Amino acid sequence: MNTPGQPAQQGARSLDPHLRRYAARTAGMTASEIRALFAVASRPEVVSLAGGMPHLAALPLDSLSAEVGELIAADGLVALQYGSAHGVPELREQICDVMALEGITAHPDDVVVTVGSQMGLDMVTRIFCDPGDVVLAEGPSYVGALGSFAAYQAEVVHVAMDADGLEPTALREAIAAVEKAGRRVKFLYTIPNFHNPAGVTLAVRRRAEVLEVCRAHGILVVEDNPYGLLGFDGVTYPALRSTDPDNVVYLGSFSKTFAAGLRVGWVLAPHAVREKLVLAAESATLCPPTLNQLIVSRYLSTHDWQGQVKTYREAYRERRDAAISALEQHMPAGSTWNKPNGGFYVWLTVPEGIDTKAMLPRAITQRVAYASGTGFYADGLGSRQLRISYCYPTPERIREGVRRLANVIKDELELHETFGPGAPRAVSGPQAPSPDTA
Amino acid sequence: MNTPGQPAQQGARSLDPHLRRYAARTAGMTASEIRALFAVASRPEVVSLAGGMPHLAALPLDSLSAEVGELIAADGLVALQYGSAHGVPELREQICDVMALEGITAHPDDVVVTVGSQMGLDMVTRIFCDPGDVVLAEGPSYVGALGSFAAYQAEVVHVAMDADGLEPTALREAIAAVEKAGRRVKFLYTIPNFHNPAGVTLAVRRRAEVLEVCRAHGILVVEDNPYGLLGFDGVTYPALRSTDPDNVVYLGSFSKTFAAGLRVGWVLAPHAVREKLVLAAESATLCPPTLNQLIVSRYLSTHDWQGQVKTYREAYRERRDAAISALEQHMPAGSTWNKPNGGFYVWLTVPEGIDTKAMLPRAITQRVAYASGTGFYADGLGSRQLRISYCYPTPERIREGVRRLANVIKDELELHETFGPGAPRAVSGPQAPSPDTA
Question: How does it assemble (chains A, B) (predicted)?
Fold first, then answer.
């Protein structure tokens, strides 16, 4: 039988003289479907709705250039020198101000600066997860998180979500099933706002319940919130951390509110956990780049950074509108999607019988790329779904990309009419148009 | 009985509500003695011979400032955007040119850019080491490497070194002992040039033998070479990688040849291993900061970077001379040290009866800080030794620091004359003045 990934591994087995030397965890490291896509999807004739690259064109490069130049001239001996694994103190104070916008009260000592919030995620998993420990995560979930969990041999159990985000009932059931199996849940990993890839937001009325369920079962909550300030209605939701500081580890990032290429993120953790994180970070990278931290710190203090976030929000709302109107115009019956209130992503369910992963090469031939749904599940679900990222291309390109995608789907359906459809597929995650689209 | 570290752990047990949640590996994460020092040692009245911070004062900050400003203005949309986990292609080509200075022939595809070579070390350990696997390392060894090995629950077996570096006989014996115990050696971790902390260099005549022994026993070699271009006689030794490309993973860094605060390092690995490294790096940080890679790339192509390395070399040689002459002038009988030919460090063995870790608080009271020897061993050795870093302070401060240190040691000896010495201590690592000092 053809297990996914097996042919490649067999190839590696015969070619790689080091194969017998790898750690057990290395077997779980496989190239993500999305990463494999980047090369083809970056050809100019292809409209890429696949990547999650932020739209940077709105950044004030001239003033940034001057500021960074000045920083190096005036403060280069600090900016180019080692710092602490904990992060630059002034930046950690400013990060507390940023988090205050979401109702968080925090002490700068409890903030650890990381090389993007991906590193925060990796460090949190490092300090908490032994092989075989269970991590609960929405289904679907962020592909980079699944990668980190796999790297530490944690097992992901997905929790269903609907248009209002994580379902508390499903959370209770998942915990009960894991506990019944005698397994240990280490934490719930959740992206409450403008979810990647599902696009939905955890309803405010559900937040206390989710926290309460986790607390009752002794389960830590890891709140990943890169998109929280990118709500299209200008609404910022209260962070889970704001109401349960002792049981929530919060991950933040400047990748979407400022610039991804600087790789500056952070973890806010309960005090004792923070100490472990600093130790873990020290053995991972010694310290985050000092220059990058000082650039962000200076940017926050000298630029109208909230004005810039507003500019980003407007750019993304325009793109979201382009994606949604094109979906409404072109998608064949039997497709469903949600209309996100913020962030970068629409989660599309295609008509029955279509396998989005199998369809991808044909889509690329038709000059449109997307991320197929299976990459966002640790358990093989998602084959009838895909993620549309509207963050990077222009609205015109997005409309054209969605039009091409709709044609690819229609071609698939025609093929099925002629040759019969594929097997019915299980579907998970929010499928129906969310209440927002009503 | 009072196991080291136990009191602190007991304290943590009562204070940290998350204690039962941590992964097994987290128990091995303890604050390094050196890190605990940085806070006190950074007070201006203290001469710190503890840290390994490079001397940056020689950097051309004005032209760097202009270049980086220009980079952001002209290329900001790339510099501030996500890149690949593999690293910027142009930089990987330039890295191959840098390595060519050490006799290495490599393809840019086999280079992975990392967030400092600490991350390279962490990634190599991640892909190779299961808990309980053995890593061979010189005794003493780099404290950050010991931290990464502990984070992956690998067990370090130290291999003795002398003034000519790692001893091949000791290597053979260590391998035999590990194999006899039915344990698995995953790799030999070695710093062949201007060792941290021992200051010695692996004699060229020993290099082929070390490679041969490892190859014969199926043991990978991890060559960590941050100081290779900092030889005071302008001599660059052939890298281990240059003669055994299939069995050596090479770690390089711009932290000592350019600027540590950018955190740009790299791994050169056999092709199949490189693929695993990219996957591991992707789940660790997604990608290294793009801006930093472009800064290094531009610096390499527009600056006389080898001239800058020469400037660094001269600055460090002057500091080495200051340290050695002060040691000769002030140290009491019974102290031994080596005279390094490059790099940042002198390894000092103090007279019998003195415990360098216990002495440290008294030294700081006398306004001098150092790194005590035990931090460089995974097995508790090193208590009669300490590392002097001459890289950062001015020659005057180094001389003053060594003078203060000598006085502290003399005070200890006087105390012992009055109250009796401590117990005799096992000594390891190069102790006698090396042939260089003859």
Answer: Homodimer.
Q: Do A21 and B65 touch (CB under 8 A)?
A: no
- The confidence score (pLDDT) of residue A1 equals 34
Q: What percent of chain A has pLDDT over 90?
A: 83
Tell me the pLDDT tens digit for each residue of A222-268: 999 999 999 999 899 999 999 999 999 999 999 999 999 999 999 99
pTM for this one? Answer: 0.93
Closest to A118 (Cβ–Cβ): which among B78, B147, B286? B286
Superfamily of domain A24-58+307-419: Aspartate Aminotransferase, domain 1 (3.90.1150.10)
Omega before B351 cis (within 30°)?
A: no
- Interface confidence (ipTM) of the complex: 0.93
Q: Do A262 and B289 touch (CB under 8 A)?
A: yes
pLDDT tens readout for residues A97-113: 999 999 999 999 999 99
d(CA B319, CA B324): 9
Tokens at A7, concatenated: 């042919």
A79-302 CATH, one of 3.40.190.10, 3.10.450.50, 3.40.640.10, 3.90.1010.20? 3.40.640.10
Mutate to test the interface with A, among B32, B187, B275, B286 (most CBs of A within 10 A): B286
Measured in angstroms, the CA of A129 and the nearest CA of chain B are apart by 5
Query: pLDDT (tens digit, 9 = 90+) per residue, A149-162?
Result: 999 999 999 999 99
Listed by start position, the domains of chain A span 24-58+307-419, 79-302
**A interface mutation test: which of B14, B72, B123, B295 has the most A CBs within 10 A?**
B72
* CA-based nearest distance B60→chain A, Å: 9
pLDDT one-digit tens code per residue, A413-437: 998 888 776 666 666 666 543 333 3
